[in-house]
Amino acid sequence: MNAKLVLENGVVFTGRAFGYLQETVGEVVFNTGMTGYQEVLTDPSYYGQIVVMTYPLIGNYGINYEDVESQSPKVKGFIVKENCTFPSNFRCSMDLDDYLKNNKIIGLEGIDTRALTKILRDTGTMKGVITLEDMDINRAKEIMKNFSNKDAVLNVTTKQKYHIDGMGKHIAVYDFGIKQNIIRSFIKRGCRLTVFPATASYNEILEVNPDLVFLSNGPGDPEDLKLIIQNIKELLGKKPIVGICLGHQLLALSLGGRTKKLKYGHRGCNHPVKDLTKNKTYITSQNHGYYVDVVPEDMEVTHISLNDGTVEGMRHKKLPIYSVQFHPEACPGPKDNDYIFDEFLKLAL
Amino acid sequence: MPLNRNIKKVLVIGSGPIVIGQAAEFDYSGTQACMAIKEEGIEVVLVNSNPATIMTDKEVADKVYIEPLTVEVLERIIEKERPDSLLAGMGGQTGLNLAVELYEKGILQKYNVNVIGTKIEAIKRGEDRELFRELMKKINQPIIESEIVTNLEDGIKFAKRIGYPVIIRPAYTLGGTGGGIAEDEEELKRILDMGLKLSSIGQVLIEKSVKGWKEIEYEVIRDSQGNCITVCNMENIDPVGVHTGDSIVVAPSQTLSDKEYQMLRTASIDIINSVGIEGGCNVQFALNPNSFQYAVIEINPRVSRSSALASKATGYPIAKVATKIALGYTLDEIKNEVTNKTYACFEPSLDYVVVKIPKWPFDKFTDAEKTLGTKMMATGEVMAIGRNFEEALLKGVRSLEIGAYSLEISKFKNDSLDELKEKVKRPNDEGLFIVAELLRRGVDVEEISNITKIDKFFINKIKNIVDREEELKGLSLKDLNKEKLREYKKLGFSDRAIAHFLKAEVEDIKRLRRELNVNPAYKMVDTCAGEFEAETPYYYSTYEDFDEVVVTDNKKVVVIGSGPIRIGQGIEFDYSSVHCVLSLKKLGFETIIINNNPETVSTDFNMSDKLYFEPLTEEDVLNVIEKEKPYGVILQFGGQTAIKLAKYLDKKGIRILGTSSEQIDLAEDRERFDELLEGLNIKRPKGRAVWSVEEGIEVSKEIGFPLLVRPSYVLGGQGMEITRDEDELRYYLNCAFEKDNKNPVLIDKYICGREIEVDAISDGEEVLIPGIMEHLESAGIHSGDSITIYPAQSISQKIKDKVLEYTKRISKAIGIKGMINIQFIEYKDELYVIEVNPRASRTVPFISKVTGVPIVEIATRVMLGEKLKNIGYGVDVYKESEIVAVKVPVFSTEKLKNVEVALGPNMKSTGEVLGIGRSLSEALYKGFLGAGLDIKKVKKVFAAVNDYDKYEFVELANRMNEIGCEIYATKGTWEVLTREKVEAEFVDDNKALNLISKGDIDLVINTPTKGNDLEREGFKIRRRAVERNIKVLTSLDTLRAVVKVMENKVEYDVYVL
């Protein structure tokens, strides 16, 4: 069935729909990873977004039960050049089409994804509608206008607090849409976890008396999360705090820094980041549309992006507070940065 | 860390002659390395024995030594030049082995030469199987159960323990030479014995076979600070067990999930960290398709064929970055030239699919054993880029120039299903087409995957193509609407294939495409999947809506490259293409290259203003031309691949610069050309086309033996032979007509005279001959296989004048503007013309380098209208050089099972080396040395010569005796020698094979009775000798030169060209 992607700027791409055949709207972003589409689909940070994969053949190894970063796919729509209908891999248990169908997500294939990527790169990220109708731009714009992703975090955070046992450090995890591999990375190190919904107050956190507070990744604009920022402020100085991605941005805002939207984000598995303390560069997995523009006074920059010089990590000059913008837990992407979790744990009480 | 200021002068070692396993990719890496060093203001001293390379140009290195690649020669150069540094990893296995040897012998230490880049200790950790295995165990990287053995007994014992099949891999050899898979003890004995001999350190690894696992490669770069990136990963479509050089390879991997991808990526990085690589490295893995189990196969601690492929596949210049690392830079200090904004410290992201397909020499060697294994047999490769797998695969297939434009070839139509299944069981050169045929007959994907161990993903992709081909067969032209046609074009179908299946004309499809506006769009290879703005002028075609090429208004010229390296059309043509581009740039033109060979310098996107990585078919080339609308197209430098496009492009109204299509035809059409020669009063050997054996015998009586016979429908000496009597002729004709009775066999008088060759430039009025070359072997041995001498040593002035005169007459009569190559035979003071090529030939780089005449540049200027007399190199014959130069052919026959070694009219060599000296003897000594024969070390000679040569041999044997050579001879030869009182020892065939097997012979002289007769003892002896790395001379002309050099006891020197 034919379907269209209508962009905010009026550009239209026509391709074929697959997955669940229902109109969708979201922020259109591209990801340059050549593998890891299943991890991308299930990464809660993509909530509210229509993701375009720049690699043209997607679905080759199908979908398995293991490589998920949350219970279900979180994207609003999925755009590929070619959707593979005969996947091959020993773990494959279904194809991409069925997976999207079962999870009520529309896919669009057969469009010039490179051209779309270049438009997003040049114009910046924008909203878009995937539609099965012959929709005119005004109608599409109306749909886009009504689309808001401000509640994204509330939609992907855990509904209830839960515990994971372990013999090691006790970590209070603020779940803003956490990727499973972050949790696995802590479990691998023997940690005991208490995972809180994003709405949890600082008191609830302090009540469990954790050795370390972890601020997770998640979707959306950090500046929309005023209440959460308030809670984090209350935790400063009381407990060691570490964070990844959105967590890192929220830390910056809590400490008086500022965040800003990137033109088209960093999404992929090939982003070089320089660790300034080690004077070494690592290839990182990234997925963020915002970045820390003004670093809080008390923080020093520990990591920078080698591509555009933006802040990729920071550490408090006096307090045990440390965060990174990229994804040391990988999944998808290179495992080179696993050491960050060890550095996190060094700050635990 | 920035540039290391202590580095002032760097020695770079090239890879020597082109052989199977070591081809143009090292010209590409070496050229990049030299330029990367030079641009830092550091002096480069380059040594390479191969004159057909760009890297040996004066513009590339500061000092160029085209000298034999031996430790002794290198020491002399080091002594003379006193470099402070040596860059080891650019010259393939040859360069690496030499660097290790220079180090081990203390030569580097003696002259204070520091190895930059990956250090010798690290090279050894990566190359020495024992050290590598220890290291892998230490860092917990799984390896395949294996043991290093140095003798037969241990090998057999070990194989018994781990169970068959086992893989045998000798250490320190090229392209897996001497390796193989043994299914049982018998086979193991044979392969192991050979492997032990071929390994330069006598070590062979025996390992458990993991046949059927996937083979995955990673290209990794690491700097001195330990920053590490993987440039690219690649998936071999053929399973482990087929050498990666013989496998269809796709980049990036297609069937690996992120988990597997990252698992192997992490392993690669851990491995090169532990080895201590500072530069580029290739890591090969075997991956169990049914689990996460994997094993490290091997690493190459240097740039390689795979790294050249990865560079072209991603746009990331691995050799250049590796060189900068050797000079002290770290990855985060080196700019990414593609974006000019980001750094070399990142991992390319592809938004297209790359397919590499090997090019095998089996069209030339029809008797060769074609089963693919751990020994590489391909001479070259093509690469194709598409936005889907089908498109890339089909573009690759038609780039091969094997007459295939789709996956259907007629060859297998009559085979039964069982026969096909049997054929595809053992991987072979036609596997892809057999798989397609099986699918066409309805065999299911699962079964084919089980038989071939090719992943279902790829079989399904092939099936998609086959299904669409079948679908087309049921359609007619009028069924193709825009949408339908676009679908086929998106899948990579050529117009020709569509026409074939529809039973329509190619032109119909082309017209339809134009009417419906179905045209390719061109996309950029930018290393970053469009994430950053890029400036690489590197494009590929695909059928999508958005085209990224900015067509300028500049006056531009398109240069057509020569495609994959094959016997008869090698790196020489890439040399010429690149020089043509450089000359055009100098003249102020915008330059555009179209080519499909990933190994070459011409497909380095820094060479031309624009590079289109495309098949060199009529359709693909015309598409680019119609888009770019150049001033003209140059075909003369791309060998036969480019020349054969002339007629078509001319018909389409494209301006062909230089010699026109009509004139090319005049030179290439046998009848027209015969007429032309007759009109010019120039002789050529008498000949006739015959249709039956009896007719042939009749003609032979009329012309007289010996005769040169060949099928009429092939080019390049394929199937050509010399017959000396009626029996031989009858045998040949019987075989030929049995194979094909629809075409005649051409019979020519074979004139056993001196062969003379010229490459000339003509402006339509006058000619310039940079040098007259003489062939050492008499006519009858393909010009590419004979030793070429410049200046000609034994040609009278009278004949030289005649050569000039004929060249002028022929050039003018044809109307050549640009290059012409003419081969003559001088016989009894008469000059005959035997071949004319209206294009640059393989001797162009050789003669350019030794005369100092920039032939390609002059020819390019002439093609654009300049007159020779205004260019500054004069007209007629250019002044002879003082120095004597010889071009000695190099063969790879040892790598091709069952291939005849003896030279004949069918070209066999894969490469060449240069020997230069003040005397012919010095030049020849160095030429032979570069080609692997140290004449000074020849003490024991085995001889078996045919009846025609016996008496001539007596004299040479006598002379060899006098110098102190021991001669072993077979019965017939021994009898003649004894009768003539020449000392020789009689050996029977078995003993001869034994002596050769044990390596007790230094040189084999064997002039064959009849080529291609596999049963004869001579064939076995020749094969055994080359497989044991013993030189075989099959022409007494060559032997005479060798004996002369022996007698002269030459001293040699090294020279800067």
What report would you give on this structure?
- With 349 residues, chain A is of the alpha/beta class.
- Chain A has two domains: 2-149, Glucose Oxidase, domain 1; 153-346, 3-Layer(aba) Sandwich (Rossmann fold), CATH 3.40.50.
- Chain A is 23% helix and 34% strand.
- Chain A has ten helices and 19 strands.
- Chain A has helices at residues 37-42, 96-102, 113-123, 137-145, 152-156, 180-188, 202-207, 226-235, 246-254, 339-346; strands at residues 2-7, 12-19, 24-31, 49-53, 57-58, 77-80, 82-83, 106-109, 126-131, 162-164, 170-175, 192-197, 212-215, 241-244, 258-275, 280-294, 299-305, 311-316, 321-324.
- A ten-stranded mixed beta sheet of chain A has the order 10-12-11-13-14-19-18-17-15-16, sandwiched between helices. A seven-stranded mixed barrel of chain A has the order 1-2-8-6-4-3-9.
- In chain A, helix 6 (180-188) links the parallel strand 11 and strand 12 (192-197).
- The longest helix of chain A has 11 residues, at 113-123.
- The relative contact order of chain A is 0.14.
- The relative contact order of chain B is 0.08.
- By secondary structure, chain B is α/β, with parallel strands linked by helices.
- In chain B, helix 5 (120-127) crosses helix 6, helix 31 (920-930) crosses helix 36 (1036-1048) and helix 32 packs parallel to helix 36 (1036-1048).
- Chain B is globular.
- In chain B, the strands form seven sheets. In chain B, strands 27, 28, 29, 30, 31, 32, 33, 34 and 35 form a nine-stranded mixed beta sheet that branches.
- Chain B is built from 36 helices and 40 strands.
- Chain B folds into seven domains: 9-116, Rossmann fold; 145-209, 2-Layer Sandwich (Dna Ligase, domain 1), CATH 3.30.1490; 355-518, Carbamoyl Phosphate Synthetase, Chain A, domain 4, CATH 1.10.1030.10; 548-656, Rossmann fold, CATH 3.40.50; 658-684 and 751-880, ATP-grasp fold, B domain (D-amino Acid Aminotransferase, Chain A, domain 1, 2-Layer Sandwich), CATH 3.30.470; 686-748, ATP-grasp fold, A domain (Dna Ligase, domain 1), CATH 3.30.1490.20; 936-1048, Rossmann fold.
- Classes of the chains: A alpha/beta (349), B alpha/beta (1057).
- Chains A and B meet through helix 3, strand 15 and strand 16 of A and helix 9 and helix 16 of B.
- Chain B: Its EC number is 6.3.4.16, 6.3.5.5.
